[in-house]
Automatic annotation (TrEMBL):
Keywords: Lipid-binding. It comes from Brevibacillus composti. InterPro entries: DegV (IPR003797), DegV_C (IPR043168), DegV_domain_contain (IPR050270). Pfam families: DegV. It comes from the Bacteria. This is DegV family protein. PROSITE patterns: DEGV. Coiled coil: none annotated.
Length: 284
């Protein structure tokens, strides 16, 4: 008998509208706290509005994981319509959302497998898509969850921060670092490895940063099968589309998707941020 599986994720994942309609996916929003007012990520606050507010504020808003009660309420509701559930959340090293979801599942009789994606944004969606495909094949939900945990390590990503001023506002850069970085046009490139954010490299100018991450994509394709690349942007669609054209001109066989970063991720990355991410599959 086919299992009726509910799929849960959080608002840092970008779920295209067609996937929301086609699958039993339930999204639990994180909160963006701005001037003591809490906004539900992607519900009460759009990315565009967030950047406008940040631009005119001396401080950066904070983010907060969902309360455990939200997960308990959702899991109790899902128990009425589903046999089990798989929850795929942003990296446990970046937020307590995964642990909160797991704690809520432990308090419910409804069987839930909670997966740490070790990443954020569209790569979570990629994992959900793989899980849905396995469910179509009739795989047990526990085996699906275990497969997704292994698949999470295949992601590779690079993040070019848009504005050093936002890192400064958030306390991640000193005044001296901000001034020096601005004068020298420093563009730090970050990546998420094993679930944690690491500094990959510092380069001079934005164009050099993009060339550097393109080199990493070239290297990855020489070693792995990379069939799809995602570009995630902080309210700079023109830059994202220009980068897409760069990739397509060199790698015609790669599908390139472009999506915005969620407000929660925009708080930490800032307007102008560009992230490039893909999955390294074994070469056939």
């Amino acid at each position: 008998m086919t299992q009726r599986i509910a799929w849960i994720t959080d608002s840092t994942a970008y779920i295209p509208e067609e996937l929301r309609k086609a699958a039993d996916i339930h999204i639990v929003p994180l909160d963006v706290i701005f001037d003591d007012v809490a906004y539900q990520d992607g519900v009460d606050l759009s990315s565009e509005k967030l950047y406008e507010k940040i631009e005119h504020s001396k401080t950066v808003p904070k983010t907060s994981q969902p309360a455990i009660g939200k997960f308990i309420e959702l899991y109790e509701q899902l128990a009425e319509a589903y046999d089990c559930a798989i929850a795929v959340h942003l990296s446990s090293k970046l937020s307590g959302t995964y642990q909160t979801s797991k704690a809520a599942a432990a308090q419910c009789e409804f069987p839930v497998e909670v997966v740490d994606s070790q990443i954020v944004s569209y790569p979570i969606t990629t994992l959900l898509g793989k899980g849905l495909a396995l469910a179509e094949q009739g795989m047990d939900y526990r085996d699906i969850a275990e497969t997704l945990r292994r698949e999470a390590s295949k992601n590779e990503n690079y993040i070019v921060i848009g504005k050093l001023s936002q890192l400064h506002k958030g306390g991640r850069l000193s005044n001296a670092q901000l001034i020096l970085g601005t004068l020298l046009q420093i563009r730090p490139i970050f990546c998420i490895k094993n679930g944690a954010v690491e500094l990959f490299e510092k380069v001079r100018t934005e164009n050099k940063a993009y060339r550097r991450i393109m080199e990493q994509l070239d290297r990855a394709r020489s070693m792995h099968r990379v069939s799809q690349v995602e570009i995630l942007h902080g309210n700079v669609i023109e830059k994202a589309l220009a980068l897409k054209e760069q990739i397509k001109s060199k790698h015609q066989d790669v599908e390139v998707l472009v999506y915005p970063l969620s407000p929660v991720l925009g708080v930490h990355g800032g307007q102008g941020t560009i992230a490039l991410t893909w999955t390294n599959e074994p070469q056939s």
